[in-house]
Write a structure and sequence with these properties.
The chain is globular and about 45 Å long. The chain has one domain: Glutaredoxin (3-Layer(aba) Sandwich), CATH 3.40.30.10. Helices cover about 30% and strands about 20% of the residues. The chain is α+β, with helices and mostly antiparallel strands and about 210 residues long. It is built from 6 helices and 9 strands. Bound molecules: nickel (II) ion. The site of nickel (II) ion has 7 residues, from helix 3.
């Protein structure tokens, strides 16, 4: 098994991306409070058990991910820029290397369960340019917290008077690549170029 060369960057990214904000520029003052000490983790430490609900309203657990390699992104449907950008990059990459959607399983997990209902996600996942067959997952706040913890995803509600609901959600913006058994393979961010994502996924697909 290949040691994921990006594992080190996952660790530093998870610190940096604590600050990834969808709706506002993070201030430097946020940094000390939000960048926790990052301890070394093994490959198996990303991913794990969760129980959520998919965009059709059906129960969906980590077991339902298995059998195909997965691309997993945590975000929220109200996010105006970062989430759509990442999902469009995923969509663009998959349309090139997996045009019929048979190889990878693309998944969007909400960090905003209050607003992201299965009904609203059922519309969201069909957005133009998003991956074909994108699975939208949400759940109770407790279920979402458990999924976030399993994947080491940081997110935090922050007040936003401009939003109708009065808040936005700062969140890590990571595209995880997991193998068909649910083990961590690689990670991208919305800053990874689409050609680089295509190159990495193409290489993975040709080796597995
Ligand atoms: Ni976002």
């Amino acid at each position: 098994m290949k040691i994921p060369r990006r594992l080190i960057s996952v660790l530093s990214l998870s610190a940096i991306l604590f600050l990834a904000a969808c709706d506002r520029e993070p201030s430097l003052e946020d940094k000390p409070a939000r960048s926790g000490k990052v301890t070394a983790v093994g490959v198996a430490d990303i991913g794990g058990p969760f129980e959520l609900v998919d965009h059709t309203g059906a129960p969906f657990t980590d077991q339902d991910l298995l059998g195909k390699p997965q691309l997993i992104y945590f975000g929220f449907a109200f996010c105006p820029d970062v989430c759509p950008l990442a999902l469009q990059q995923m969509g663009m990459a998959l349309s090139e290397i997996d045009p019929d959607g048979s190889y990878f399983r693309p998944v969007f997990i909400s960090v905003d369960p209050e607003r992201d209902t299965p009904e609203s996600l059922s519309v969201y996942v069909t957005n133009n340019g998003f991956p074909k067959g994108l699975i939208g997952l949400t759940g109770t706040p407790e279920q979402v917290s458990a999924a976030k913890a399993a994947y080491k995803i940081y997110s935090q509600k922050v007040p936003d008077p401009q939003s109708e609901a009065g808040y936005t959600v700062d969140h890590a913006s990571l595209i995880y690549v997991m193998d068909k058994d649910g083990k961590f393979v690689d990670v991208f961010t919305h800053d990874t170029s689409t050609p680089d994502i295509i190159k990495a996924l193409k290489a993975y697909k040709s080796e597995h």
